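Q: Joint fold for the lines below.
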Amino acid sequence: MSPFQIIILAALAIAAVTLVVGLVRGRVGRLSGSVFLVVLAAGAVAAVDPDLTTAVARSLGIRRGADLLLYLLVLAVLQGFLVVYLKLRHLRREMTQLVRRIAIRDAERAAAPSRDGGHGEA
Amino acid sequence: MSRADESRPAIPPPLDPEVAAATWIVVPVHNEARVIADTLRPLVSTFSNVVAVDDGSTDGTWEALDGVAPYRLRHLVNRGQGAALQTGTEFALRRGAARIGHFDADGQHRVEDLVRLVDAVASGSCDIALGDRFSGDLAQVPRGRRWLLRGAVLFHRLASGIALNDVHNGLRVFSRRAAERLEITADRMAHASELIDLIARSGLPVRELPVTIRYSDYSRAKGQRWTGGFRILFHYTVARVLD
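A: Joint structure:
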């Protein structure tokens, strides 16, 4: 086993353990956690037997295994961007609602100041 | 536009006091400390319920609004014009507004035009009255702007199937039920396009009335550019796909 294989397998193992712990404790979603585990396992298989990726690539009409990995990486990155973008959009919307709530609340307090000794909204 | 008209003092035509009292005007304000008092003065003399929404200004706009705007609301963080309009609208609805108008802070709109839009909605002839700068005198609209806005009109005819003359005019009046139904979620400038879509889908009666836009160097510098048009198109398209 080459030094690179040892390093990558160790890294994948650490990632897998972290993920499993997250799954067990319910911090990681079941679906995304399982998908990630499969990806990690596939990575381990590819690290142990690099020729296997070439065989899979060939069966898909791609010449080299490295190219197949590159294409998959591009897809994964795009998917990642989309997820982050959607999260950001959601966050922006929530922020607007928060800013709006504060603006309206403050204005309503200013428009109707609570009488001295009265029960003003705290 | 004739010189005489330019120099004419802004004396709005009389508006039924009851109609005026039940109408709330929302003015989104972002870094307009220099001009906001001049914009609001004629507005406040006609409408008692004017809501200025300071959208996270950093130039002292909030202080400039003190004592000038009957109601001033403050976005602690800048959220964009669409967000500011929606904030002012929700505030006005909570306080029982029968009609809600939108008025730009940079001084490009005339109060007398707003009054005619309010009249149109108050008379029940429509639920939504929109300002239209193209059915009147075109000479005052800068040429580059004219083509940009024409493009927007054509786009909306294709995208929403609504035939309007002027789709990016900030002078608008809504009846209460229209304001309740049309919730602006596009924070930034794409809100104008979003509103047109919402109006088209609502099926509520719409009227466009000719208005005059006062293009000053100030308002022109504040307005949208070509690149802004593309940004609006992008945000609008993304929202149509994702929402």
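Q: Anything notable?
A: The first strand of chain B starts at residue 23 and ends at 29. Residues 181 and 202 of chain B are 8 Å apart (CA to CA).
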